[in-house]
């Protein structure tokens, strides 16, 4: 028993001693740096993938200008609504709602807000929404892996107590530790579980996306299913407070919904055969940020190939010319 305890202490994962640094009057939280790093990585990966599809280089920036702020707002709103006891009621500080640098954002809220922003950005730039979503999927999953290190710095969102060698050390003063546990108790490093799962997901999405040429939103659907399946497990062993409905935490229900939505996208998008004709919407030119506001329904016909009647006309003209010669 003693040797097992010693092994756990020796091989356990320590938590960082600090979660921020002060540069003069400016306090920089590592949590925020992890989020920013994830956004940068996702932007670079998405730009590379969109450009390979034929989109204008860095058009992703125009989309991100709307998607990122709405994703952050949605993430914070979702967290606050699913943890009302933290911010509302006697003894709470309602202004903490706005202190996002202290932690507390929800990826499912980010997905909702970010999807709205991305849709608006795609309408603005002319990029197909599903083309953008598929290009984003691997980078988004990698960004989530990077962002989870912010939870490590903040010593938050850890799991049940464990005697496994990779248990996570948490400062005894941390108020998130349940009462009655002996000092030195180790906890499941749920942040690390999710990091590993997400990185494996990035590899899987890149592999299957290239192998099967998944388009029309199908790769994004697989992202939703992959991430949500993992989140169901990690969320189920976390000990941080959460609203419970029918015996399940709110984020478990959100993850279940994520799997359902992913499957629904796969089913609905089966109607699209072959590859997308262009990363841009019909009637939109590469690099043209202005929408075509026409009531003519032909503006919304896919013009990647000429109509059959036009092909026949040109063939007939060519035959007549040859005969005349």
From TrEMBL:
The keyword Glycosyltransferase applies. A 1,2-diacyl-sn-glycero-3-phospho-(1'-sn-glycerol) binds at residue 148. Residues 278-304 are annotated as: Disordered. It is found in: Cell membrane. One of its GO terms (cellular component) is plasma membrane. Keywords: Cell membrane, Glycosyltransferase, Lipoprotein, Membrane, Transferase, Transmembrane, Transmembrane helix. PROSITE patterns: LGT. One of its GO terms (biological process) is lipoprotein biosynthetic process. Pathway: Protein modification; lipoprotein biosynthesis (diacylglyceryl transfer). The keyword Methyltransferase does not apply. Its EC number is 2.5.1.145. Its main location: membrane. Residues 283-296 have a biased composition (Basic and acidic residues). It holds the Pfam family LGT. It is a multi-pass membrane protein. The chain crosses the membrane at residues 28-46, 58-78, 98-122, 129-147, 191-209, 216-234, 246-268. Belongs to the Lgt family. This is Phosphatidylglycerol--prolipoprotein diacylglyceryl transferase.
